[in-house]
Amino acid sequence: MVSLSVQNLVKEFAGGTRAVDGISFDVPAGSLFTLLGPSGCGKTTTLRMVAGLEIPTSGKILFGNEDYTFFPPHRRNIGMVFQSYALFPHMSVFENVAYGLRVRSNDNADVKRRVMEALKLVGLDYAAERRPSQLSGGQQQRIALARALVYDPALLLLDEPLSNLDAKLRVQMREEIRRIQKAAGATTLYVTHDQEEALSISDVVAVIHHGRISQIGKPHDVYEKPVSAIVADFIGKANFLKCVVSSKAGNGRVVKVAGASPITVSSCVGADADFADAKNAVLFFRPEKAGLSATAAGGKSVPCTVQQILYLGEAVRYTAILPSGEMAYLSLNRRAEGISEGSEAFVVLEADDCRIFPEEQYALVKRGN
Amino acid sequence: MARKVQPAGPGPIVKKAGFRDIDWSAWIVLGMLAVILVLFLIYPIGRMLISSFVEQDEPISWQNLTLYNFRRFFTSRLYRDAMQHSLAVSLSSVLFSILLGLPLAYIMSRIDIPGKSVLTSLATLPLILPPFVGAYSWILLLGKNGFVTYLFKRYLGIELPSIYGFHGITIAQSLSYYPYVFLMVQGSLSLADPYLEESADVMGAGFMRKLRTITLPLVAPAIGGAAITVFMKAIGNFGVPSILGGEYYVLPTLIYFQVVGYYNVNAASAISLVSVLFSVAALILMQKVTARQAAVTLTTTTRQVKQITNPLAKTLGFIYAALVILVSLAPHITVLVAAFSETWAGTPWPTKMSLANFSRIATHALSPLKNSLILSTAATLVATVIGSLAAYTAVRRKSGGRWIIDLAVMLPFVLPGIVVGVALLTAFGAPPFYIAGTAYIVLIAYVIRRMPYVFRSASGALQGMDPVLEQASTIMGAGWARTFGRVTLPLIAPSVVAAGLITFTTLIGELSTTMMLYSARWKTVTVAIYEYLLEDLLGPACALGTVVNVVVLIGIFMANRLLGQKVSNMFGGN
Description:
The structure holds two protein chains of two kinds. By secondary structure, chain A is α+β, with helices and mostly antiparallel strands. In chain A, 25% of the residues lie in helices and 33% in strands. Chain A is built from nine helices and 21 strands. Chain B is mainly alpha-helical. The longest helix of chain B has 34 residues, at 77-110. Mean pLDDT of chain B is 82; it is low at 1-17. At the A-B interface, β6 and α2 of A face α20 and α21 of B.
């Protein structure tokens, strides 16, 4: 296994569109790194450049310390799982998995042994003689994984490997992929648009928007400490409220939300100048990090009218209208006592669970970035 | 490429991309096609173009350039008539093909009649069997001593007009070409969104109004495309008018007459150019029509359109379909019967059945049969290899030079077979490349004429194949040669082999180009049939025609097994 280093990668397509606009990241040997972003953000193009299927306009791709930027794909010693799996329909499962080994070795006994090992790793050794078309989607997915790992590639690339599976299987398979990746110790680059998948499977996540990395970090950091409103909005569910900074409070600020008493927030993300007194800003919190109460609590509550209550089984979702006219969504794990649709109540915000972003990011989020 | 398993890590991998990593295939294929294009298409066409501006037996030079050959279209009655005849029989063939094919297409796609798949296969047969093999049996049916002529005279007292000339050619061509209209319109009808007709129903439109306002406008582009296809086929057809024309000359027979009668290649070149002008005009029209076709909404539902189940409609529909198909197959059935009859002239039925015709051709026609098999097989192999490589390059490689492929594929479509013959004859019947009279010139003609068909079939298969499969192979370490051999080729093989089989069947029955280029040593089976006909030996001609038909049907059967139902589409899509 080697480490992967991508440095300042740019891909410009004919017509001048920059699909990838200066992306840099490092993947330590044996870890799983995920590129996460909406469709068209450049994550798949980045992966295809690492695979050698696209040639970068500029930038470098290093495997270990070796420059592989312009290396032909069949000499890169990588394994890849495609979105559509790309299993060869005219070959048996065994021959599919053996394909990469046969390129590298003439030793039939060795090929057979290693194919069966790989099939056992994904739990499909009994299906060796079947055709791919005789397998279910999940089984095909595992064959594609076995085929990519069987020759111990320097790097494993996964391009939206779960997007063709139904929701339940997707959850099951991502645990499976993580288990197999750890067992094989493969340095892995994973591409997905599904944030839950990215958070659950990765060692490190890079969030990409418009061909650039917005944030790189461990899954819980990206979720709980987003560095911009755009990241906060893309990952998980987010509430944004307009506010005005009224004073400093340690590293945080005290802010004023329309119709509520001043609220304390522990962290602000951005330049100090953006959060000077009387500046407009945007207050962010996750639906499950706020509470709902029939009574006000000083320094952390905003009055609201409960508009709708949806019972979802594992959670109860409240839609509340604030005095400013903004909506807030709350996700509680039990019903709030004495509150029904139409009730007047208070949204309770803990200082540590809230962040504020500069005002101009609010407009970007509202535009639906 | 390293043969041992590479240990993990980049260490042992060769660092720089070497000569063997670069994909030279695209350049090799493009180079090969460029040579073919220049040597066997552009050069012959150019030679033909220049020859047409020079009088017979004059050397090519600036002083000798003249419009004499073209002026004859105004001065010579023979030329003027041939041009008018060509237009007349081609347009009337288009008209009758539509009159026969359009109702059949409607019946087969909208009325619930029994035996549909059998009827469809039978209706495709006239396209598959060589048209000129069927053409001469019209003499047995409608000739002076023909079976039908006899019936009319005996029981109705009607004297039928002579089969030779306008009537005969129109009848034979319409009955061979109507399946184009049938297949293309049926395809369009079955793709049209069934909800369109149903919503017209709901809004209260009656049957005729629905037909006029919805159904026909939807399939109009298909009718137009089919009409142009028939026109191009008919105006380039040599076999049928050469057998049923008599003194009634059309452009292809006039070309043949000039070459074989006077060895006047210059006049033949001029006539060829005029004939090509008509084809080009038709093709341009075709592109306009197909461009409009793209605007037609095709269905995305898999729901079948509702069938008419009214018993009267079913009965009438079935009778019509069966009748049209029976009449169009009558010549082929006649060929079969005549092949086994010893005497059949002036009588309603053959008076004696025997294998005499076959024993006769066994002594005379074995070597033409062998020649045909050799030439067709060799040309098929070459056309298949070149055609599929060209398709691979065009679909998978985004290198420059795509226009080379387009031109090499497009030109043979515009040129009627007999014109290809004339062009090759002008180019290779004189130094520096003197190969007229050899088998090679026939092979070259066959290859350039048929390569586009393989190209179409293979590029269709490639476009239907996800390029991700090839990328997966590359990622796993296979170079392009291994990827092509292990992944691409096996996956497109059925389409390529089927296209090869179909190419082979069309070459076995090829007459027009062969007529211009064959030599005594390399006489083909179609030429042998033609010679029997010149000697009025209809029996042996039918026996040999039957042999050709059997070979053709075996080829089509095998292609069908490989591809399923797609074979008829391949013919219909020309």
